[in-house]
Amino acid sequence: MPISSLVIKCTKTLLVFLLLYCAFGNNASAQCIEKNFAFEAGEKLTYRGYYNWGFIWVAAGEVNLSVEESKYQHKDALKFYGTGKNLKAFDWFFHLRDTLTAYADRETLAPLYFDRRTHEAKYHAHHKYWFNYSDNTILSKIQKREKPEKLDTLANKPCTFDILSVAYYVRNLDFSKHKKGDKIPLSMLIDNEIHSLYIRYKGLETIKTKSGEQFECLKFSPLLVKGTMFKGGEDMTVWLSNDDNRIPIQVEAKVLVGSVKGILDSYEGLRNSKNSFFKKRNGRLEIEE
What we know:
The chain is mostly beta strands. Helix content is about 5%, strand content about 50%. The protein is built from three helices and 16 strands. The chain has a 16-stranded mixed sheet that branches. Mean pLDDT is about 80; it is low at about 1-15 and about 20-30.
């Protein structure tokens, strides 16, 4: 398979693994977060995606994540929005535009609604999920290609997150409670199934930028679901800034052929200036590749 085909095939994994990086929760309590201290409405994060085949890292795509104040069914909520796309240079060959939208409770970050629209060349799919906590169910409506919509009702589990809202929930967890090597359980909604998975905490590690700056990071690896993108197992590593903003600095994962990497490129609207590794609320970050 030519390298251009592999680059495009793996670009579509970028948005997914940047969100899956933080897919773990604590199923012990119904309220899964005590307080959101890490982010606020107005935050925007941009990542550059790369694909590696052999010894060469090739620029492949871009992911954007943002947070807004919003309403859901007339109640205060947070709206999370994510987009993933390949570089324009590849549009003639493979047009990729994936979008994810999630509404979450403003206080607990519990997911309320999740929407994923997939546009990959001629393939189109639309996943919609409604979380109903009165009877602990999740209503799903899924349409793929030109096929009729499929309706389903899933039995929900405590502290189950979609792949977008969980990316913000995890940033508020107390990592000091865990030691290196710990397995932390999670409940995750992926493609109309709730998976019981875990993340293995790997301690602290420092990442360097091209300018010489250093960021102490929390390092961990989630257990991946075997499928069309991943082999399964702990083949993903994540570095999360060990400050009050808890920004994902870098994510790297093995895929069926080669590996992919996401690197923080720019940020704005960060919540915390004290106890922060980031000197500005808005800026760019050049991580050594």
